[in-house]
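User:
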Amino acid sequence: MRGTAVVTGASAGLGRIYADRLARRGYDLLLVARRADRLAELATELEAQYPIRAEVLVADLGEARDLDRVATRLGEDEAITCLVNNAGTSTLGPLSGSKASDESAMINVNVTALTRLTVAVLERFRRLSSGTIVNVGSVLGFHSLPISAIYSGTKGYVTNFTRGLQEELAGTGIVVQLVAPAATATDIWDISGVPLSNLDPDTVMTAGDCVDASMAGLALGESVTLTSVEDIQLFSDYETARLKLLSASQTSRPASRYNLSKQGTA
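Assistant: Predicted structure:
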């Protein structure tokens, strides 16, 4: 048996597809999301279609009490072998005039919940020298728009958190994948305030294609899966430049352009 896969944000979009694909591969499921009716419907559907068990855990991961409850459950469940941190939220718009509740929701769900749930399974995965963690980020973890300062900031955290965790767990037998989709046809767009209809259809991937590409990337052993990037050399070039920049920063001397003797005094 493959054990149990936890999928957050499972009631719709990418999470719903992840649940289907993991069930197809023989995983039992622990489905986490806010909408009880949708979760129950999905669990019933998957149990009827595949020889697996699907359990529902209704929770709002943006709420501290719910997050505590889910993290406790994940820490205690010895059957869990896979965690898909898919839950996320987005409100797009200028930072000036943004609502504190929207800002907090993005940070709480995209950053805090993802971190807490990863930590919750990590001790057991380490003990077993196995387990899979999939963190769903975004190409906006590498870039920011005038309307995405907070969202891009949270996905930048997912990117760096995941890459750091990969380095920490190298050689342990634990697999950690960062998935970085571009525009994908899910209901997050309507929630964000930018309707999907505003986007060029040629730039929008279906949820099914996105998850299938992500699962293929996982099978290929990719640490970072950019689901819509054809020329993967672009990412290699990005990584080379990133590491070159980091290496160039490792000196005790200020850069020559900051020559203080030529700056005068304030």
